[in-house]
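Structure request: Probable membrane transporter protein, Streptomyces hazeniae.
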Amino acid sequence: MPDPQFFVVAGLAVLVGALVQSCVGLGQGMVAAPVLIVVEPSLMPGGLLVANASMAMLTVTTDWRHVDWRGLGWALPARVVGSVGGAWVVAVLEPTVLGAAVGVMVLLAVAASLWGDVRVGIRPGTLVTAGTLSGVTGTATTIGGPPMALLYQHEPASRVRATLGAYFFIGTVLSLVVLAGAGELTVPQVQSGLLLFPCVLAGFALGRPTRRRFGTDGLRTPLLAVVSLSGILLLGRALL
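Returned structure:
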């Protein structure tokens, strides 16, 4: 098991990430992943996936009434297909190159969304596309939230958070099952993820008073900001 210093540093990163995700609907993995990779890479990705699953579970438990289950019915099967495609892409393409390409696409999508207020309808075709892209990018780069977040950006805040939470929870559990089946999910990873749960709970609780201030329009700006940061992070990984 890692030393106590790891849990102080990783716990703070997870707490901040959980606070961001509690308010906006995504962000815990984006905030915490770079920290965990530096301080204890042997616990990635399983340790963070366990913590991410607990954060998504908290969101679904409190906001399940607002989940767009019909939309998830289209997006989640596509995510499974995209995850297989992402694993194949990793085998034939450098992850940093793919990350840079995804980062550019994310930033272009944000720019298009802001320029002229471009709006993409939530339909079976767009849900399948977003789910597939999310599966590819999530498997290859550990950042899979932006495609779904961009699709739901104009929805009410409660619907965005709840739907993304359910999407992340089911998708993360599937990822853990795949890792376990491949022998890549270790006991220390699971233990560290469970030990980080109090930090997840604290971040989730701290975010609840703040998120009540976001309405439909109020959530879009921070949501796009977090998505843009994910694109910049992917580009930064490629350049370093």
